[in-house]
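If you are new to this repository, start here. Below is one unmodified record pulled from the training split, so you can see the exact layout before writing a loader.
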Amino acid sequence: SSGINAEWPLRPGEGAAGTLQNLTACAWEPAQLLRESVRKEKGLSVISSLLRMSNDSVVRSIAVCLRNLASDSKNKELLGQNALNNLVKRLPGGEGADGITDMTIGAIISTLLELVTGAPETARLLKTQGGIPRLVDISRSTDVYSGQCVHVSNRVLAACWEIRDLRKTLKHEGWNIGMLQRTAPPDRTDGLEYDEQKNQFKASYNDGLNRPHQNTLQRQRSPNRHTSPGRHVSPG
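And here is the target side for that same chain:
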């Protein structure tokens, strides 16, 4: 039976979500065993469903946890089929985007990159579920999103570019592979500063919650699709 569809007795809050994120990280053997056990114990669907929670930090931890879980090839395939929709909905322009900070957007995009790289069917599903236009908007909105969000969005789109039948969609949205090559990778701590008390990085840029609401999918298309949308971030 599938490791994605059954119930699993886990209802973590913020602390447990962070624990899941940490325990599934790295290539050490206990993490590998846990990634396999989560699938065998039918836990992928429950963890994926937590992306619908309203707590931003929980959503961020779960997104990172899913990225960690996807380093197992069987998990990656199942999550690509069944978790993608919940991830896309939390991107700007999605119905679940309200209250999501730039740090969490970055975590979601990084998980999408893990799922679509080398996975043509998942990349095609990303198109079907409306993720490509949202990622294109992020990729050219350097005045709105962190350098990490912009760069990783370009990398997801570049992975989609490898699928020939998706290139027409990408071009229609105003994106081509040259845009990745023109974007310098950010520093590994781009936009972040270290919180000594919490032993983690924290956002030093605006969290993005004051952006004017705009559904990117409803914005009228124009020949200048490469132009950044006219959104601005209010001073923090």
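Two things worth knowing about this chain: Residues 4-12, 188-196, 198-236 have pLDDT under 50 and may be disordered. The CA atoms of residues 50 and 59 lie 7 Å apart.
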